[in-house]
């Protein structure tokens, strides 16, 4: 069936370093992707999105890369800060949104 | 402030005792949806509503009911809760089902059924 997955369940990064969180998707018809951030005790929050006609999109300290050839999505966080500690998951939209299981990002002081 | 409000945040109940989790949004969104989040499974859609009086099943609708009598509210009803419905529940809304800005989520309701 269709699924959205992540390679690593937990990622530990030193404060100030860059973080890269990956996501694989299986539906080649998906044309829109979103990264969400979920802090403990809170609902998911929109971080950045990208359409399938783009390879890269940049926001404030975050960049999303899309590789349609291998159906791979990544979220890059520059100069990771303690406030970035959260669960990050991707969502793909073909005929509906399908959410990934998430990667927990731990920022080490 | 634009938001989705869920109540209660935490709920412990006993098997078989009917309960309702409320959800309200103040953004005049057409689309609303309920999800449950379980470890290792991600967000799974329970029910959704494209507009007032229009609701449909998501991926895991068994044991749940919803209603959409007015645009802002979308309550989730568990007529006879069972322990396998212990989960973290999220309500979400957006202008349309395929909104370019994704969904706005509530803060969640942690339900424990004993």
Task: Summarize the structure in words.
The complex is a heterodimer of chains A (109) and B (114). Chain A has 109 residues and is mostly beta strands. Helix content of chain A is 0%, strand content 55%. Chain A has no helices and 11 strands. Chain A has strands at residues 4-5, 10-14, 19-25, 32-38, 45-51, 56-58, 62-67, 72-77, 86-93, 97-99, 103-108. In chain A, the strands form 2 sheets. In chain A, strands 2, 4, 5, 9, 10 and 11 form a 6-stranded mixed beta sheet that branches. In chain A, strands 1-3-8-7-6 form a 5-stranded antiparallel beta sheet, with no helix packed on it. Chain A is globular and about 40 Å long. The termini of chain A are far apart. The relative contact order of chain A is 0.35. Mean pLDDT of chain A is 89; it is low at 1-8. In chain B, a hairpin with a 2-residue loop joins strand 5 (42-51) and strand 6. Chain B is globular, with a radius of gyration of 13 Å. The mean pLDDT of chain B is 94. Chain B contains no helices and 11 strands. In chain B, 0% of the residues lie in helices and 50% in strands. Chain B is an all-beta fold and 114 residues long. Classes of the chains: A mainly beta (109), B mainly beta (114). At the A-B interface, strand 4, strand 5 and strand 9 of A face strand 5 and strand 10 of B.
């Amino acid at each position: 069936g269709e699924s959205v997955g992540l390679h690593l369940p937990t990622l530990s990064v030193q404060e100030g370093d860059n973080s890269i969180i990956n996501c694989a998707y299986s539906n080649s018809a998906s044309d829109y992707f979103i990264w969400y951030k979920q802090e403990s005790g809170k609902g998911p929050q929109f971080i950045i999105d990208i359409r399938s006609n783009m390879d890269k999109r940049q926001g404030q300290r975050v960049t999303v890369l899309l590789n349609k050839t291998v159906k791979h999505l990544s979220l890059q966080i520059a100069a990771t800060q303690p406030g970035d500690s959260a669960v990050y998951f991707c969502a793909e939209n073909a005929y509906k949104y399908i959410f990934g299981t998430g990667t927990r990002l731990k920022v080490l002081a | 402030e634009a938001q989705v409000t869920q109540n209660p945040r935490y709920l412990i109940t006993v098997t078989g005792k009917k309960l309702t989790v409320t959800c309200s949004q103040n953004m005049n969104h057409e689309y609303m949806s309920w999800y449950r989040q379980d470890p290792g499974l991600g967000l799974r859609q329970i029910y959704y509503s494209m507009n007032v009086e229009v609701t449909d099943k998501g991926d895991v609708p068994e044991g749940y009911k919803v209603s959409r009598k007015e645009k802002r509210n979308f309550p989730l009803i568990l007529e006879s809760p069972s322990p396998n419905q212990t989960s973290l529940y999220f309500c979400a809304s957006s202008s349309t089902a395929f909104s370019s800005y994704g969904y706005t989520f509530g803060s969640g309701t942690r339900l424990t059924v004993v």
